[in-house]
Amino acid sequence: MLTHWNKLLNTDCVVVDVGSHTVYPIFRVGRSTLMSVCDKQYINKEIDHCSHVDILIRDPEERFVSGVNEYCRQNQLDVGTTWNEINAVKIHDRHFTPQYVWLLHLYKWYKGFVTIRPFEHITNITEMHKHKSESKIDVPVIESFVAVDRHLTDHYNETVNIGYLIKRYKNALS
Q1: Order of strands across the sheet with 158-161?
Q2: Residue 45: other Cβ atoms inside 10 A
Q3: Which of 38, 42, 110, 132 has its CA 20 to 30 A from that of 78?
Q4: Per-residue pLDDT for the chain (174 aa), expressed as one digit of tens each?
Q5: Rounded Cα distance, 168 and 158, in Å
């Protein structure tokens, strides 16, 4: 499954400072908000200078539904038809890629400590929340897109070396 995400893995990696918080923005996990309020950006090799990074992890099922809807909204596509193509492994997009893949993306540039935070922690970082009230069409969750992320939620409010998470769940992505 990882080969499907090469397009994401080969993009620039960005970590941001928002006040005293250093955060890794993930699509459909407050990324638009964090990017709009950030004070500083670290890109690729610069990320290694960070002493610690918070990573917000959203409920995997909620994020998948939100991500499919956002992909359809941006591309003016029918949600049901698009879901069928995602299920048939014909469409891959950063809005609904597993959050674990985003951790792999960060791991290319950063080998230090991270704290996994529930998405709701964003209110401790900023009062702004873009796209909060957008309506969504319910779609069935595709297990291969959420299974590994369920493991990440077990680490809410834990500080660990990112390499530990990468190694621990590397086989869960298949």
Answers
A1: 40-43, 14-18, 21-24, 53-57, 113-118, 158-161
A2: 10
A3: 132
A4: 556 677 778 899 999 999 999 999 999 999 999 999 999 999 999 999 999 999 999 999 999 999 999 999 999 999 999 999 999 999 999 999 999 999 999 999 999 999 999 999 999 999 887 666 577 899 999 999 999 999 999 999 999 999 999 999 998 876
A5: 15
Q: Is 13 left (phi over 0), alpha (psi -120 to 50) or beta?
A: beta
**How much is the pTM?**
0.93
Report the b/e string of 99-131 with b at 16+ CB within 10 A: bbbbbbbbbebbeeebbbbebebbeebbeeeee
Look up residue 130 and give its amino acid.
Answer: K
Q: Alpha-carbon distance 128 to 98, whole Å?
A: 25
